[in-house]
Write a structure and sequence with these properties.
Blueprint: H1 11-34, H2 36-42, H3 58-81, H4 84-106, H5 114-138, H6 142-149
């Protein structure tokens, strides 16, 4: 791991957000994998969030469960490793899933009670907002990144040219 790939600033906050997204996702996915009919019938605070939207398909529920587990594990690995490149990749993959998922559900709140519709929109809104917060926390001013890598990418970080001409290098 290069020094510029290591997350230094806000590492604990970033890791906490990644785990807060990944752990529930993996657990929900495990539920769908192990007990797909139960997941279909009972998912959501009031139950029936999945069953309200269409017919049961065991294959589809198990596939989604596996996807959820994989995505959750990816987020947890990114949190533990603390690498900028892995974290950005994990968050990008997460958002590729979470944004269309949020849009679909926000446009299909009709079958839910008011409380379930609000809970659904808020919980899925969080799954888009939290990774955006991670990306914002990962941003470092260009001068910090350049200083960490060396201005020309070749020098040791923060070891400036002290003069003395070409022979002093």
């Amino acid at each position: 791991m290069t020094r510029t790939d290591h997350i230094d600033r806000h590492r604990n906050w970033i890791a906490a957000l990644l785990v807060a997204l990944g752990a529930p996702q993996a657990l929900i996915g495990l539920w769908a994998l192990v007990a797909p009919q139960n997941f279909y019938d009972d998912f959501g605070p009031g139950g029936g969030w999945v069953s309200a939207l269409g017919a049961y398909d065991e294959h589809l529920v198990r596939d989604v469960g596996g996807l959820f587990v994989g995505l959750g594990v990816l987020m947890i690995i990114a949190a533990v490793r603390g690498r900028r490149s892995l974290t950005v990749t994990a968050v990008a993959v997460w958002l590729i899933f979470a944004v269309p998922h949020l849009i679909y559900h926000v446009l299909n709140l009709g079958p839910y009670t008011t409380a379930d519709a609000i809970a659904n929109a808020v919980s899925l809104g969080w799954t888009v907002l939290a990774p955006i917060i991670v990306l914002l926390l990962l941003r470092a001013p260009a001068t910090e990144r350049a200083a960490a890598a060396g201005a020309d990418g070749m020098r040791i970080a923060r070891a400036g040219d002290r003069g003395g001409g070409p022979s002093a290098r």
